[in-house]
Queue: 4 jobs
Job 1
Amino acid sequence: GAVVSQHPSWVICKSGTSVKIECRSLDFQATTMFWYRQFPKQSLMLMATSNEGSKATYEQGVEKDKFLINHASLTLSTLTVTSAHPEDSSFYICSARVPGLAGTRETQYFGPGTRLLVL
Amino acid sequence: GNSVTQMEGPVTLSEEAFLTINCTYTATGYPSLFWYVQYPGEGLQLLLKATKADDKGSNKGFEATYRKETTSFHLEKGSVQVSDSAVYFCALSGGYNKLIFGAGTRLAVHP
């Protein structure tokens, strides 16, 4: 249980284009999902908290208009990198909490990540 | 504010050696503590967790004990395998259920 998937697993795009990354909870409903960014050999940096049916909460320094987050259903959150540039190249990882399960309130389950390369 | 400090890697061990990866934290309140593992090219997998002081989390031969008095959550394994080679992240749950990660420690196990 508690499986989170991401699609695509990797993407290459041209500078100036937009890229959408999907994060799905496969066997549970997730009211809250999280989006992280990871640079090579570094830790994860929380970008935003995605809440179903409401606006995402962005961390300080993360551009809302650059990284659009939509959490339209209880099993899907999307991250759109708009007008991508080479410096946006990174590994993007989502996670989700499993609500209502005893002892797991604070546990996050992670997707396999999406590697983005902007040329 | 909340923070997590891990020992710097890489840690290089021979198969069947004993492993310790140190993790200390600073936090207000009583956070839950986690160890996640990341294999090359993959996302993070929850390895183990502890939700209160003196709790011991364990999984796949790995153990960590929540030590409030030393604010530590060191990861240990008695006999590592080549397949344990990965990056290990210590984390705590901050406010609003956010996870705060340490910098990660790369483990390389050689036959």
Job 2
Amino acid sequence: ETGVTQSPTHLIKTRGQQVTLRCSSQSGHNTVSWYQQALGQGPQFIFQYYREEENGRGNFPPRFSGLQFPNYSSELNVNALELDDSALYLCASSPRTADYGYTFGSGTRLTVV
Amino acid sequence: AQSVTQLDSQVPVFEEAPVELRCNYSSSVSVYLFWYVQYPNQGLQLLLKYLSGSTLVKSINGFEAEFNKSQTSFHLRKPSVHISDTAEYFCAVRVSGYSTLTFGKGTMLLVSP
């Protein structure tokens, strides 16, 4: 059973650019959530996808968008990058009933310069 | 809206000493509670969870946490820590009926010889 895999592991972008982060969910998990973890902070919920549709969103602007594919993998897209977008982006997958918590990937470290 | 407070940002302790990491939450509805651990440059790993039943829950590596509804707390304890327990620990809450997690800011456990 494979876990959650994220790519790339590290990324450096320039302010104003766009970025796409990718996530493959754990086998059997159909729900994917994305979290942003700024330095020294706890993860903050960005949004969640279930059956290819957004199923909840945190307090993030529309330039943060996502997709979920039929195989339950997911992408996080961020447009018009700002310096404050520098963070560790974590993907987490779960069965529809998340009673057993989420399985997190190792994250993508995004640095915006 | 729910929130999680981890009262200590850093807890230094000597090897083989006991430790308690404090977590308080606020919510007007039923919650599920989780502790996650994050080692340097890694994602989050589920340490233990409280869903229902016995208020004392234990992990396989000696940690335990007790759900106290009257004090809205879910403190994490270990009677004897190891150097390898050095990591960041996050308390998280999920409101019944919702699938997103709200995290605290984390507590860095520093175990020294």
Job 3
Amino acid sequence: EIVLTQSPATLSLSPGERATLSCRASQSVSSYLAWYQQKPGQAPRLLIYDASNRATGIPARFSGSGSGTDFTLTISSLEPEDFAVYYCQQRSNWHFMYTFGQGTKLEIK
Amino acid sequence: QVQLQESGPGLVKPSQTLSLTCTVSGGSISSGGYYWSWIRQHPGKGLEWIGYIYYSGSTYYNPSLKSRVTISVDTSKNQFSLKLSSVTAADTAVYYCARGSDSSGYSIDPWGQGTLVTVSS
């Protein structure tokens, strides 16, 4: 089973600042990594797929990078609506299982 | 665009079977390349994948739940379902149905709004 470890657990920043969230896989997932945003009481929303492709309707301030085991989600300039919990996710080609990271809470400083 | 909606009892007694249905609208559940999935979230916790049924009918389950989970599809109703047997309070969670895709790196989109299931006598 591939384990995804996100860091930091909590990130405190102010609007306008740059946010950098990390996701590390216990073994290579190639580029098959996605990022989601979840706000309280809502379902997760797909932000990034295939490590670096923005999903439909996602603002350009969100970007993803990485391959293999190390991935990054960057929010270039935080808007008030960006404060939420962010999850990374992968699906193994060997075990056909989906796994999620434990989440990073992005909070207002 | 495709939309998913969960339905089912919000309260289940311990030792009974939790049954949920996901209705797919705006597209066919028989379309190729999709993984019709169930994911849950315990209160205040992260996301846990339960399992999925591929458009071909193959199923894959989280090993930690495999002995209790069945996912099936009803193409005539454009629905897929989750059954989780022998539930305990630890199965209290928000349950989401969602669609995974071959063509977007196995990412999951869209998601249903989620339904809270409480296990209690």
Job 4
Amino acid sequence: QKEVEQDPGPLSVPEGAIVSLNCTYSNSAFQYFMWYRQYSRKGPELLMYTYSSGNKEDGRFTAQVDKSSKYISLFIRDSQPSDSATYLCAMRGDDYKLSFGAGTTVTVRA
Amino acid sequence: GAVVSQHPSWVICKSGTSVKIECRSLDFQATTMFWYRQFPKQSLMLMATSNEGSKATYEQGVEKDKFLINHASLTLSTLTVTSAHPEDSSFYICSALLPVDTDTQYFGPGTRLTVL
């Protein structure tokens, strides 16, 4: 079993729709949770960072963490074609080593 | 924001040769950098942690004699793939920790290595 599970998709939505992404994990030591966006042949770009359980909102992006269920989510409201990318969840414990999900490929259709 | 660069962005080499990839923090000093490998449609896998002035720490299953890491300065870490083989073909990405914000890793753009 992988430490972090993420459905690779692909996920295709029309412009303006809400994109819903999620990851599950097995390591109870994880306390820091991140979402990265990665365009083809580029390095990941940090989108959201959350410590422990709770919600965090930043513009059109909302990140949720439920540590009791070992489940994290990212929602993108009013999706745009420019949001088309691969979204990676990542998490870590007290050290700085990140464990990544496989990434979900999202396409927003104009 | 913090910028991390990598050079080269892509490289093609013959089997048996060695390839060096550079990772630079352009506008900050990074005492800790990380090296990842990403195969097509797969996630990033941490290969090693590079600390300035000390030996790198390799993850289980990563051959330290094959993947040589040197972090000689606060802005530069290098990864050398020695005696490369086709199975080493991959996307190699580095990241750096910002000293004032050690919760965040900033990633370079990656280097695509193709071994013929």
